[in-house]
Specification:
Elements lengths: L1 H36 L2 H33 L3 H14 L5 H13 L2 H9 L1
Helix pairs in contact: 1-2, 1-4, 2-3, 3-4
């Protein structure tokens, strides 16, 4: 069961990093579009939208990275945090649903509960 928990931790970390990169990529695309249009007002608007999207993506992705790091180290708080994130991921079909189900299967197991109790 400890392997499942570590895999789950790495999944949360990788998906969190992908979320951060998506936000930064969106920012870069919007800034590039603003430069290509060569309109100051359009550049300003696209810059603001890009910053807002990037900040939101970082804020949404950070808990997954934090929970993943805690899961790898078998921290009890990370188990609770990952269960909450798993519940929040369920509506995100298909990847979020799969990640949420895998979270519940991995962390609600009695073996996993015992592994986190040791820490």
């Amino acid at each position: 069961m400890s392997t499942n928990v570590k895999v789950l931790g790495w999944l949360y970390i990788v998906l969190g990093i992908l979320g951060v990169l998506t936000g930064l990529g969106t920012l870069a695309i919007l800034l590039g579009t603003g430069v290509l249009v060569n309109d100051r007002q359009a550049m300003a608007i696209l810059f603001i939208i890009g910053i807002v999207v990037a900040v939101i993506m970082v804020l949404v992705s950070a808990p997954g990275i934090i929970a993943g790091a805690g899961l790898i180290k078998f921290k009890p708080w990370a188990r609770v945090m990952a269960l909450v994130l798993g519940l929040l991921n369920l509506p995100g079909f298909p990847l979020g649903t799969v990640l949420g189900i895998y979270t519940f299967v991995s962390l609600l197991n009695s073996d996993a509960e015992a592994a986190f109790a040791k820490s």
